[in-house]
């Protein structure tokens, strides 16, 4: 399941999530972000109930982008139990994204 993450729902959807959350920091103008979007949708569908994919638009959610120190996008951050478990910057194949989750 893909969820739009905002400052308002961050605590409920990410920090208090009962399943790991893969945060995708992206922007509409970012080509590499658009390249990985289909892989993220597949991962969200294939892991429904076991994983949440959270989309954070850095243009709309600058506060969250600053909180995570986003300097380039796409930035993928794996959150487990409200803490950063893994992160990676840049476009990558689906297999590499899935490896981040392990």
What are the salient characteristics of this protein?
102 residues, alpha/beta, Glutaredoxin, 5-stranded mixed β-sheet, 4 helices, globular
Strand segment count? 5
Q: Largest sheet, if any?
A: 5 strands, mixed
* CATH topology group: Glutaredoxin
Give the DSSP E fraction (strand runs of 2 or more residues). 25-35%
Continuous helix count: 4
Annotated CATH architecture: 3-Layer(aba) Sandwich
List the helices and strands and how they pair.
Elements: E1 2-4, H1 10-15, E2 21-26, H2 31-46, E3 52-57, H3 62-67, E4 75-80, E5 83-89, H4 94-101
Parallel strand pairs: 1-3, 2-3
Antiparallel strand pairs: 2-4, 4-5
Q: What does this molecule look like?
A:
There is one protein chain. Helix 2 links the parallel strand 2 and strand 3. The chain is globular, with a radius of gyration of 12 Å. It has one domain: Glutaredoxin (3-Layer(aba) Sandwich). Helices cover 35% and strands 27% of the residues. The protein is built from 4 helices and 5 strands; from the N terminus they run E-H-E-H-E-H-E-E-H. It is α/β, with parallel strands linked by helices.
Short description:
The chain is of the alpha/beta class.
